[in-house]
Automatic annotation (TrEMBL):
Residues 277-413 form the Alpha-L-arabinofuranosidase 1 catalytic domain. It comes from Durusdinium trenchii. The lineage of its organism: Eukaryota, Sar, Alveolata, Dinophyceae, Suessiales. Residues 641-655 have a biased composition (Basic and acidic residues). This is Alpha-L-arabinofuranosidase 1 catalytic domain-containing protein. The keyword Signal applies. Residues 636-655 are annotated as: Disordered.
């Protein structure tokens, strides 16, 4: 017998005490090596982009929010346009008048702007910004922050524009000023601000004070309290000037590989949680103004748009920034487009992304926009959660034909196409009409080289896994003649506790024994800004505050499984003694020293306290053994005060 260099266990369960099982694993593959990619999706729900991943620290960057007493965003009600009754809208602020501002100063919103529809006019006064929900900034002493704002002076006398960092009621940096003379043009002003203090971050009571900076959305981790930091930003005008499109973000030290992305967030995504695929998509893409051509070019020239989840969103971070992020992180990208894009516009998008020939109109435009080389190949999803209708089938048919024609004409790579209709038992398979329309869509996809269908599944209840197994069984038999595969681009729910982590692991085990039928498995809304969850999707794998980034139990489940599946990816036949509410997968590697090693993934999900004893029978000797455990109460959570309560740990065990 060849000695095993390494054998591992990954075990997830509630708190443990007395359960015994015997596992007999054969060194015989139960299917091909798993090539499934796992990761998460992001969209502008719960501010996970604008206010989260995007390096922009300010919210209200282009002064598009309604004015109160002349100041844009001084009191806005952030209702969800698509769901006005869910939840109760909250009132918060983007900009505040500085306490030191002269009473004689003038402040007004005017219809003259470099970006959007309006800008902020200031005369002998100052305004301040404390970020998303007025949660404050986590400034770091000695660190540089980049600031760019556009200003215009259309009066005879000159005006002085001054910017500074704030810490509470005190300045946190030297002031930086520029004088501007009268001009009919908008001019960009650039500053580098160096903080001379480190902000304090901590807990405050969840109440709305006079400043408006002490209101947050209650989190399960911290009932009745908010997490706040003391840093802020101020613009002061001496004389009269209009300001618009303001950016404040960390220097290279705080950005991921030079991109407009928070470094700590990206490292948590791709290093700690080990995401292998990133999807930009979801209901955000169903907004009428969500069109790819709105997101190309310099950020200051992209016009604002009304979002699906929030009425005022940034156009500064969109699908092309996500493509560059995927490339820098070396992960696969999924881009969802609005299915109402015309076939010609979608074909233009493919040419824009992939053309390298200078004779290409859209390739040349990409180069002029600053991206000289083509983007790496990605998966394109058409629509999100569309109704199963023949109209949608015809849309997908027209779009795929237009893409195929353009790729043939320009000699471009054809991306994998995903149908964004949330496939499920009732609409697709349990009626004659549903099966007929599903079959018509599969006929369309059969002409595509690489195609898949999107499934959005539950994640909170243990019964959701049984529903997923039923969907797999039905869809596999139905899809097989057409060669179409399945992708799970949203594991959806309203929790991020240990029970959600266990369900995620169970989905992983089920998919890993389906060969290459399930190509991807991604969580919905993988990022969540803590205390800013203003709708029901409370399901972040990665939680974000101004000064911290940490994994929820759900995120630790993702991290453990992703890393283990890289080392052990060939499913094996096994037998296990009957144990209630225990699921297992056994695997070996395709290469290297682990070929004779075995990797086990076990999920015990009864909710009862049990100790698990595993006796492994394996035809090779075990020279080295290791294990990781994720355990705790089913409702265990990780909060900012103790972000490592539920995480992977080395267990107490014996050989």
């Amino acid at each position: 017998m060849a000695p095993s260099m390494h054998s591992t266990f990954v075990f997830m369960a509630p708190s443990m005490a007395m359960l015994a099982t015997v596992v007999h694993v054969e060194d015989r593959a139960a299917g091909p090596p798993a090539r499934r990619l796992v990761g998460a999706g992001i969209e502008d729900v719960n501010h996970e982009l604008y206010g989260g991943l995007y390096s922009q620290m300010l919210v209200g960057e282009s002064f598009e929010e309604p004015a109160f007493e002349g100041l844009s965003g001084a009191r806005i009600i952030d209702a969800i346009p698509a769901e006005p009754a869910w939840p109760s809208p909250r009132r918060w602020r983007t900009w505040l008048r500085a306490n030191s501002a002269a009473e004689k100063g003038r402040i007004a919103v005017v219809r003259d702007a470099v970006h959007g529809h309006q800008s902020q006019l200031l005369r002998d006064t100052a305004i301040q910004n404390y970020g998303l929900g007025q949660q404050g900034f986590a400034l770091m002493a000695g660190k540089d922050y980049d600031c760019v704002l556009w200003a215009k002076v259309d009066r005879i006398e000159a005006a002085r524009v001054t910017v500074s960092l704030r810490d509470g009621e005190q300045r946190a940096s030297p002031v930086y000023s520029q004088w501007l003379g009268a001009s009919s043009r908008w001019r960009p002003l650039s500053f580098t601000l160096t903080s001379n203090v480190t902000s304090h971050c901590g807990m405050v009571k969840n109440r709305s004070g006079r400043s408006g900076r002490r209101f947050c959305v209650q989190a399960k981790e911290l009932p009745h309290r908010c997490y706040r930091c003391s840093g802020g930003f101020e613009i002061a005008i001496e004389g009269e000037a209009m300001v618009d499109q303001v950016y404040l973000g960390p220097g290279d030290w705080g950005r991921f590989k030079g991109l407009p992305v928070r470094r700590g967030v990206a490292e948590a995504m791709f290093q700690t949680a080990a995401w292998e695929v990133l999807r930009l998509g979801g209901s955000m893409c169903n907004a009428p103004e969500y069109r790819w051509k709105h997101f190309r070019g310099p950020r200051e020239s992209r016009q604002p748009w009304q979002g699906f989840w929030h009425p005022y969103v940034s156009s500064g971070f969109g699908l092309f920034e996500v493509l560059e992020l995927c490339e820098a992180a070396e992960v696969h990208c999924v881009i969802t487009l609005n299915n109402q894009e015309t076939p010609e516009d979608v074909a233009d998008f493919i040419e824009y992304c992939f053309a390298s020939d200078a004779s290409s109109k859209w390739g040349t435009l990409r180069m002029s926009d600053g991206r000289t080389r083509p983007y790496k190949i990605f998966t394109l999803e058409i629509g999100n959660e569309q109704n199963l209708t023949m109209d949608f089938v015809q849309q997908v048919s027209a779009i795929t034909q237009a893409i195929a024609l353009r790729c043939a004409q320009k000699q471009l790579l054809m991306p994998q196409i995903v149908v964004g209709q949330n496939i499920d038992l009732i609409p697709n398979f349990e009626s004659t009409q549903g099966r007929k329309v599903t079959e018509e869509m599969l006929k369309v996809l059969k002409g595509v080289v690489h195609s898949a269908w999107d499934a959005h599944i539950g994640g909170d209840a243990f019964s959701d896994v049984g529903d997923f197994k039923k969907l797999l069984n039905v869809s596999m038999s139905f899809f097989q003649p057409f060669g179409t595969q399945l992708v799970v681009l949203e594991e959806n729910g309203v929790t991020h506790d240990l029970q959600r982590a266990l369900n995620h692991a169970r989905f992983h085990l089920v998919s890993s024994y389906q060969g290459d039928f399930v190509l991807m498995d991604t969580a919905a809304n993988g990022l969540q800004v803590f205390n800013q969850n203003d709708n029901g999707w409370d399901q972040g794998q990665i939680m974000i505050t101004p000064d911290q980034v940490w994994l929820s139990p759900y995120g630790w489940s993702q991290a453990m499984l992703s890393k283990h599946s890289k080392a052990f990816n060939v499913p094996l036949h096994f037998e296990i003694s009957a144990v209630e509410d225990l699921e297992l997968g056994a695997y070996r590697s395709t290469e290297g020293a682990s070929r004779s090693g075995v990797g086990l993934r076990l999920v015990q999900w009864s909710g009862r306290d049990q100790e698990v004893n595993v006796t492994l029978r394996w035809p090779h000797s075990t020279a080295d053994l290791s294990a990781e455990v994720l355990a705790g109460s089913l409702r265990a959570l990780n909060g900012p005060e103790d972000p490592r309560t539920a995480r992977d740990r080395a267990p107490r065990w014996s050989r």
